[in-house]
Amino acid sequence: MRKPRFIPYLLAASIATCALSSYISNKGSSTILQDGGRWVAPPSADKIKNPYPVEPLTLTQGEELFVMYCSPCHGENGYGDGAAGGAMGIKPANFHAPVVQKQSDGALFWKLAEGRGNMPPFKESLSEEQRWQLVAYLRKLGEVPDKSATAAAPAGNAVAKPTTKPTTAPSVPKETKTAATKSPEPKQNIGPAAPPASTANTPAAEANKEGPEIKTPTSLRPDIKVSHVMEIGPSAIRLFRHPVTGEFWYNTFEGDVYKISNIDKKDARYQKVFSATDHGITRLQGAVFYKNSLFLCGNTSVNNGKGTTGRLVRYDFGNAGKPTLTEVFNTVEYGTNATTFDHGWNALEVSPDGKYIYVNTGARTDHGEVQDNRGAYPNARDNALTAKIYRFPIDAKNLLLPDDVQKLKADGYLFAEGVRNVFDMAFDPSGNLFGVSNSPDYDAPEDMFWLRQGRHYGFPWVFGGIDNPQQYPGWNPSPETDPFISKSAHAWIVKYFHDDPTFPKPPAGVKFTPGVQNLGPAANEYRDVASGKVTDGDLTGQAVSTFNAHSSPLALFFDTKKVLSDEFKGDGFVMRYTGGGRAGTNDLLRKEGRDLLHLKLSYDPATDNYFVKTYRLVENFNAPVDAVLVGNEVYIMEYAGRSNAHIWKITLPSGVKTGGQNTSLKQ
């Protein structure tokens, strides 16, 4: 594995979606941060005054700090819809809300300095002047009234049980934006040759100017079309399709499951079918249909929120009457943690022959460190029920999974180990299973794995093709000596990076399987271990394992029916959930993102692994979280923490190749 030359050891990657935790509040909170009770600054905080004049440069510097430290949780515009909090089911504070803005400057400054719960004390990482710059920018955000609560409230009781009339989605012109392309230089983004004829009626244009910004995706090729399908409610994370009826469904993190009717028509609507009360999963991150059965997977909360259990259930839909619920498995209790790094049970995938269902359980740590949830679970790191892929017979029921690796192996359930968080899995046309994962809070690549039974993929000792230096006693991490550690990284601020002499040793005699190697031309920027500088694999010839740091690859799918044009036939596709926008302005690792990527995979017998060439097709999504391919049409669902989200349709070339853009160039 690669190690740096500029420090003794190297820590692996950071995932932007779980990098920072700032003023996080629970749903319905009336405070900036709530953790079992209202967080109120002491009266003396109101007397703290800003000694620095607020000038235009103050706001510019405050905005830069906001993008770096706050936007991952609170969103680019501060509406509480950022990726980090949303992905973990936490509701970050909306800085536009009166309950935030009515607090004094001194109270905001005090909370920034002291921190609480998941929010680190920024007095340890930001100077006094920087904290005041951040307060000034938060005040600037407050000048825009809060409209997100109104936007997020569905009309007509769309979230009611099936007996209640569902909501009709707003009518939006179907064709919103396509783009002609021009011949780019290898590093150039391909954009429209001219603006679309009309964008007046797109969701972005129709959105209230005082509400959250809504982006309209842009095709990077003239033969790929983008159209708007419908609006849905907040907090949706999985989109899936009933193979018998053809209806689309989606679920929210909190456990609600919705059925969509007439998805491609003007009267498209969504209707709640199940809630967490029905299926018992309060953190629902996995959903998939097989024939006439719906599988739901996630976590429950136990021990007053300090612990958790994993849970998979199956709803069997008969010809008539109420669906029947069967418990597939529950796990024994184990510790959750007080960070944004507890990933839980999530991705589901059914084998092509219908015999098995595969389940991912993500790590409960950032990079294998102790996470004891404030002493509730002493010395707890990852365990037999985290950072693994499981496989169960499709008709399994009433299983209790122990925290015992050897027992789970003997029972035939443990399929693969050492995956930090494979949030999406998919089979290719040949029956090979692939998964896309996130790396820790550090500048290393995000892996895509060819998942095979009995393999170990390295976590927590290796991730993104780089050794984890915390496994080596005597490690002394510092952003001053290690460019891979950002000063804004949550794991650095709260000292999860540290000398750790009790870190477990790698399993004896186990060879770690590397990730798929990306040859570019897209998503292959990386930080060089020798120089510490961000560079491009196109310029150096270096393969990357697999995608650029902090990109959070999600929504993996393949053209398994081989209905696309020759250029795409049988290939894979993935979404980058983060990157681009303001976050990428001054960061080459985040320069591009929130896009649809084409994956051209090829097997290499010499390494017994896959290489991939990666191309950008559509950009400018908001936060693309899941996708479903039907024929040559891709339905892509975006995540929105508080406001309504959107589903888009991407029409790809089908049949014979139609002479589209040459994807050998950087896109």
TrEMBL record:
- Which SUPFAM superfamilies has this protein been placed in? Cytochrome c (SSF46626), Soluble quinoprotein glucose dehydrogenase (SSF50952)
KW Cell division (keyword) present = no
Can you provide one Gene Ontology molecular function annotated for this UniProt record? metal ion binding
The family database entries (PROSITE patterns) matched by this protein are listed as:
CYTC
Compositionally biased intervals (Low complexity): 149-173, 196-206
Could you tell me the superkingdom of the organism this chain comes from?
Answer: Bacteria
Q: Which InterPro entries does this chain map to? A: 6-blade_b-propeller_TolB-like, Cyt_c-like_dom, Cyt_c-like_dom_sf, Quinoprot_gluc/sorb_DH_b-prop
Q: Which UniProt keywords apply?
A: Heme, Iron, Metal-binding
Q: Which protein, by its recorded name, is this?
A: Cytochrome c domain-containing protein
Name one matching Pfam family: Cytochrome_CBB3
Looking up Gene3D superfamilies in the UniProt record yields:
Cytochrome c-like domain, TolB, C-terminal domain
Q: Where is this region: Disordered?
A: 148-219
Cytochrome c domain boundaries: 57-142
